[in-house]
Every structure is written in C-alpha cells, then in structure tokens.
Specification:
This protein has 116 residues and is mainly β. 0% of the residues lie in helices and 54% in strands.
Amino acid sequence: QVQVAESVGGLVQAGGSLTLSCTASRMRTTFNFMAWYRQAPGHGRELVAKITRSGTMTYADAVKGRFTIFLPTVPNTVSLEMNSLQPEDSAVYYCNVQDVIGDYFWGQGTQVSVSL
C-alpha cells in the first residue's frame, strides 16, 4: 500500500516563508506527477502546484511568483517552497501523487496558518 507522508506545517506571520515536503513510499512504479492541493475552511480543495516527472510545473494564479514546487534528490519526494505568505494561504495542504498506471494517492494533510 502506497503511503504519502507530508512534513509538518506550521504557523507563520504574514510575509514569512515555509517549505513543505512530501514523500511517497512503497510505490510499485514511478510517479507521473506530484502535486500540492489545499483546502481552506468552507472552500473546496484546490490545486496549488503540480510537477511532472519530467519537471513541467503548473501553478495556481494565486501563488505564482511566491511558491515554488521542486523535486529534491530524494526519490518520490516533492517539496513546496512558500514565500510571502498571506493569511489567505492558510489551509490544510495535501500532497497528491499519480503513478504511471494512473492511480492517485493522497496524504492526510498538514495545516499551514498565516497570521497578520
């Protein structure tokens, strides 16, 4: 069973930075893409950033220029560097992985809170 584990989020002040990481273990195949989603109270889950195995990146308009998704050298790991955080970035952040077979796997989520 594939396990997706996110690093612990945290509480930061507006304008601050935070980096999240996620590792998918027990994968039988390699991944097609890895992505970060977020869900704020009263809102649906939305895509934040996505990166394919070849390195193609996609960002939500709300985070362009502030967030960077990248693949560290650790296998099946994705990181999200978040800069210039704002209160509206507060949400539970979820890691999502799709393998080359087409199966999706989700982490349990990690809370990011941004205070004024």
